[in-house]
Amino acid sequence: MAPTHPTRKEETRERIVRTAARAIRRRGYDGVGVAEIMGEAGLTHGGFYAHFASKAALLAEAADRAGADGVESLARSAAKVPADQALMALVDAYLSDLHVQTPEPQCPVAALGSETPRQPPEVRRAATRRLKELIGLVERQMPGWGQPGNHEKALAILSAMVGALVMARAVDEPALARAVRDAVRGLVQDLGTADRAA
């Protein structure tokens, strides 16, 4: 069976969603408007409703795409190293200088977490689904994956990672930003060592 190629309308919709996903990570849900997104995508504002019923529908797809991009990027980082190093590779990628300095490429949780509770249900649903996927990704990299208690540890690790990223972005002292991230790296490293010793 020959592969199907996307139609022009599907390609245009994809371009709008990609643009919106970048825009919300950069400026937040409330910091972007339909006209602005369409302009960044190289399209006219009037064409928006040929693709989406509402701004909320677009934001839900953008949240889903931003989350999927973040999970995929971190999964690639973990896949590049041996299994016993995957968790730290994921943590290092998440807490990297690049991720601190440029919120656009990866995690929408850190960029949008404080705004998400005020969004429509479809946006929150998309964000929740991708957050659960991210928790699962962290859990699969842990030593002894599948053991009792690992899900809770993955929740704690991800929460620490997100908190460290938010704090590192918030402060204006590079040494403090580095110390926050190094502290979380150390906690995760200690947890991995303890799990292997058990």
Describe the structure.
The protein is mostly helical and 198 residues long. 69% of the residues lie in helices and 0% in strands. It has one domain (8-197): Tetracycline Repressor, domain 2 (Orthogonal Bundle), CATH 1.10.357. The chain is built from nine helices and no strands. The protein starts with 7 loop residues before the first helix and ends with a helix.
List keywords for this structure.
Tetracycline Repressor, domain 2; 0% strand; globular
Look at the structure and give the mean pLDDT.
89
Q: What overall geometry do the principal axes of the alpha carbons give? A: globular
Class from helix and strand fractions = mainly alpha
CATH class, named Mainly Alpha
Q: Give me the Rg, rounded.
A: 19 Å
Please give the share of residues in helix.
Answer: 55-70%
So, CATH architecture? Orthogonal Bundle
Determine the number of helices (DSSP H or I, runs of at least 4 residues): 9
Strand content: under 5%
